[in-house]
Design goal:
648 residues; Purple Acid Phosphatase, chain A, domain 2; TIM Barrel; six-stranded mixed sheet; 20 strands; 35% helix; elongated
């Protein structure tokens, strides 16, 4: 019986800027329906010669080893820095593809040979990745590619990697921008054994379309190449030569260019003449930096990484720096009076952006809006705006540090107007751990003091709202405490219950209390009534206390895009920590509870979940061995802590 699936969804190539070039993640998007994935894997293994599997690779281009002079005096050092950047990636690519101009040409063959040797020496330091290259005109335009073949091998070839077919095309060795009839016939013959749905990646130097012919940004027989590729549904073309990023699509074929490592050329859409862009002397390696921050707004990067990790719906906390903020949003305390108007304008601008960004994928994203509590009327107005504009994640409640004397503490009765409004709006009130700590000053001990006490300060809003009677007065207020673990809950609730019970009795030791200072119920009862727990990258000890929390109140989180989160090993993490969780509880923890609190449409997410989400069978496979480079979440998952007194 033939296995049915949508072959066109087999390959997803997510090109994401890495500043040194482009990082691509290849995700075979197989169905997640029970029993079908194994059959599909067998089918594709038969058709493509190798079973499909996710992998990543990096495209570099125009390294120009040996270049020295304006507009970029760094020359070869940029390539060396790029290699160091690749080696510093948390998750190493399996392939590094260089789309031409490996070397800068030279008048002397001996000098050019030295440059090829230097390229090989530098590239040999790339750890754990196969190197695949094609020539550029600087490598092969003067001698028909003879020296390139001597040092680097064939100028055109093909290979297979994890179920994807790669084709290297030479469009420079003839001394002009052309592939040529002989190479075109070879490519057609090479492709003949593949079905029209096979995933194919072509890499070459010059663009295969007329990007800017008057600037020599074209291949004269590029149309012939594209016509030969047109019948194939899953084709991606990578190229260089233009020294700048570019995206173009012809039919179903997507084409990406990576920037040069030495300098960029001007934008053909806005510049009448081609010219190198100026060199930035103040920050020469700025283009070799960390671009993970793009995950906060780049739809293609974010969705691709989430899908590869099995996640199709997310509650989005602010993770960028709004206008007029001095620091990261979660670490910056409440604005002082002199900064309030500017900072307020900043979070309102961020909220407006978040609405637009979430609306690009409304079923998948529940954004959390920001408010300040300096002015209660402003806070209520902003919360109403957040609700009216569809930020289903609710509001992020600022944690007031003990030294922020210009803002009322959260247990001040003046906030009752805010709690009443939030309760009537029926939106979640979120508190993020890692916030609310005081200014420790500039001391050598400051970093250790902060990290040692941050868990205590992070839980203060929960403690303050319980003990000040907020949950007694507002029983329908939805309070979500996130990213603070859960192993600390039993001891904390026991202690708060002890406090409340003894205050009801009138004394704790020599301390005396009046009846109006007592609460009628225990902290555990208020917790079960009002509180949801968003437990990011839970450790085994966190999972052990889930039975103390109402079944609909424990929510799993990946903490994407932070380094301490589960990505890219979410499936492995779940296999570590959920083996003892019953199926019904597991479905609630991984999705149903968050869907109910944050109003996700599960029917709208079902097709994506079926395509990308982990199956029960996957999660039920115990993790017997860690991957080669496990992240912190996996390492923590190995340790079973018998008791824990503080949040993670």
């Amino acid at each position: 019986m033939e296995t049915k699936f949508d072959r066109r969804s087999f390959l997803r190539v997510s090109g994401t800027a890495l500043s040194i070039g482009a990082l691509y993640s290849v995700f075979p998007a197989l169905t997640r329906k029970a029993g079908a994935a194994e059959g599909i894997t067998r089918t594709l293994a038969e058709l493509n010669g190798e079973a499909p599997a996710p992998f990543s690779f990096i495209q570099l281009s125009d390294t120009h080893v040996g270049f020295n002079g304006p507009p970029d005096p760094l020359g070869t050092k940029a390539f060396e820095s790029a290699v160091a950047t690749i080696n510093g990636l948390k998750n190493r690519p399996e392939l590094v593809i260089v789309t031409g101009d490996l070397t800068h040409d030279a008048d002397s063959p001996d000098e050019h040979a030295k440059r090829f040797k230097l390229f090989k020496e530098i590239s040999s330091k790339i750890g754990g990745a196969q190197l695949k290259v094609v020539p550029g005109e600087n490598d092969a335009g003067l001698d028909g590619g003879d020296m390139f073949r001597e040092f680097m091998g064939p100028t055109h070839y093909s290979f297979d990697h994890r179920g994807v077919h790669f084709i290297a095309l030479d469009n420079v060795s003839a001394g002009r921008p052309i592939v040529g009839a002989e190479q075109l016939a070879w490519m057609k013959s090479d492709l003949a054994r593949f079905p029209k749905t096979a995933p194919i990646i072509v890499f070459t130097h010059r663009p295969l379309f007329d990007l800017k012919p008057e600037w020599d940004w074209q291949t004269s027989d590029g149309d012939d190449v594209m016509n030969a590729l047109a019948p194939y549904e899953n084709v991606t073309v990578l190229y260089g030569h233009i020294h700048r990023e570019n995206f173009h699509q012809t039919g179903t074929t997507k084409m990406y260019a990576a920037r040069s490592l030495i300098f960029a050329f001007s934008d053909p859409a806005t510049s009448p003449k081609k010219h190198p862009m100026p060199f930035d002397k103040t920050n020469p390696f700025k283009d070799l930096g960390d671009t993970r921050r793009f995950r906060n707004w780049d739809n293609e990067m974010r969705n691709a990484q989430q899908e590869a990790d099995g996640i199709v719906g997310e509650v989005v906390f602010p993770n960028t720096v709004p206008p007029f903020f001095p620091d990261f949003v979660l670490f910056t305390g409440p604005p002082k009076p002199e900064d309030y108007e500017k900072r307020l304008a900043g979070i309102r601008a961020h909220n407006r952006w978040l609405v637009d960004w979430c609306n690009e994928f409304p079923a998948r994203r529940a954004g959390i809006g920001q408010i300040f509590v300096n002015d209660i009327d402003d806070a209520i107005a902003d919360a109403q705006w957040i609700k009216d504009h569809g930020l289903r994640g609710g509001v992020l409640l600022p944690n007031v540090p003990p030294d922020a004397k210009w803002v009322r503490p959260l247990y001040d009765p003046e906030y009752d107007r805010l709690w009443a409004a939030l309760q009537d709006m029926d939106i979640p009130v979120n508190v993020h751990a890692g916030t609310g700590f005081p200014n420790y000053g500039r001391y050598q001990a400051t970093p250790m003091l902060m990290i040692a006490e941050v868990a205590f300060y992070g839980m203060r809003p929960l403690v303050h709202l319980i003990l000040s009677g907020v949950f007694e007065r507002f029983p329908r207020l939805k309070f979500a405490f996130t990213e603070g673990g859960a192993a600390w809950l039993p001891e904390t609730l026991r202690h708060l219950d002890y406090v409340i019970t003894n205050v009801q009795k009138g004394s704790i030791g020599e301390l005396k209390y009046t009846k109006d200072q007592a609460l009628p119920r225990t902290a555990t009862e208020y917790f079960n009534q009002n509180v949801w727990m968003g437990v990011s990258f839970p450790k085994p000890a966190d999972m052990d206390v889930r039975s103390l929390i109402a079944p609909d109140r424990f929510m799993w989180g990946s903490d994407y895009p932070h380094d301490e989160g589960t990505e890219p090993y979410t499936r492995e993490h779940l296999r570590q920590v959920t083996q003892e969780v019953a199926e019904d509880d597991l479905r609630r923890i991984l999705g149903l509870n968050a869907a109910l609190l944050y109003d996700f449409d599960l029917d709208a997410l079902a097709p994506l979940a079926g395509q990308y989400g982990p199956t029960l069978e996957e999660v039920r496979q115990p993790l017997l061995e860690l991957p080669e480079q496990p992240n912190r979440a996996l390492l923590n998952g190995q340790v079973r802590t018998l008791s824990a007194a503080t949040p993670a």
